[in-house]
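stuck on this one:
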Amino acid sequence: MSVVEVTTSRPAWWRAWIAPLVIAAASTSVLYLAIRVFRSANKGALPEGYRIQDWSSNWMMQTLGLEEMIPFGPAAFWYSHVYPPLEDMIRYVFTFPETSVGEAVSPMAVDFRLYALYAVLYGLTNALLYVWVRSLTRNGWVALAVTVVWAIHPGYITIMTLLESSPLAMFTISLSLFFLYMFLRYRNLAWSTAFLAALLLASLARTVTQLHVLAILFVAVISFWFISHQRKWWLLALNILLVALLCAIPVKMKILYDTWDVTTYGGYHRVGPLWIDPRTVAEPVYPQKIVDNALAFSSRYNTQEQVKDNYRLGAAAGEFLVQNPVESVGRLAKSLAITVPEILRPSSKYTQNYFVEKLPWRDAWDWLFSGWPYLIMISAAAIGIGWSRGWRGVGRLFIKYGWFAVFYGLLALPILFSNRYRPGEEDAGPIWTDAIRQKVFVEMPIWALVGYASWLGISRLRRNKQSKFSGSQSSNSGR
């Protein structure tokens, strides 16, 4: 065989990327242009004539105000404590076209640039789902069908067009889970490095690096080394470095505000599921350093009061857990009665989205992918995979992908216990939750699972049909 024949017989690696790149580009373009056309046709009905939802990025609970952040400079990110800083960092950069020429900062211009960025993230997330389903099924058409159904999901579009950190969290969390799946499937240590790098990005967009998560990550990194097929010391060193970087925000918060929480909403997040009324928690003596550091930079909810509340309520929740473990379990179970129904609601109802409201398939998608129909679909997918694999096969899957279950659980549990008290409305109880929004962050693996199960079912039907056809032919030839 000649050298030319050997070279041309190998499939070009780049061909596998054509479909994902087309999906990413097409998805981005379609969403971006659709919103622009909708905005032009409905300018008079939209908030300030341009937003497809009521909230501007400059007035979100998770973001800093541009009016305070820009004059203070990048040091604002050091003193920011209300939420991880990636969204505000991007907004800060998005003011450069104005600030670089001495013009006034325009929150509207920043919002427009966020819409463009999030359209790109929407396209990349769709491409990621396509790659994931194609990896499982080895069938591009099945992957494309699942991706199209996902891409036009009203709830998904609602979350990916919010002018806050949700689109960033959606993409980075999905990416990290995909890389973890790839590592566990192929046991190539480089995939674990990609997982940790994506998780580092996710930690800048969402509160994923709690202290217990970091402890488990250190154990995971050592485990990854031993279960990988090709062990390279430099990759192990890089993985350890990435875990150390994941500790950066918790360490900063400990230094400045005497808490390991990566958000000063953490106190409310903890007392809520435990049904501890914040008004019943006495004021402690606050460390002077957190009082002083909290005054260094204030903006929106990034205030000294927020730091004090986090310190006070976080300590109360920790003390209650230690002193009343059995009662704590009961109260956590009680919280599920609030969060689970919210999780099962359609995500498109999280907030009014003027664009999504006009989608003609919204009601059908909202019904099919929420509540009991969604639960039936997921259960059928799990049962179908179990039936196809058999008990032993399912057991091997659990062993092989055990670490995936661990990290998926670490991401999902805070959503299950996300109910909290709303300041000023404590009499209503800890009934405030946005689990309807947060659930989307961990939905991609579910869609990949459903896509895989669908492919297994289609393949089984084809085999049965072919066997019947072959049997019919054999019978006819015997006559």
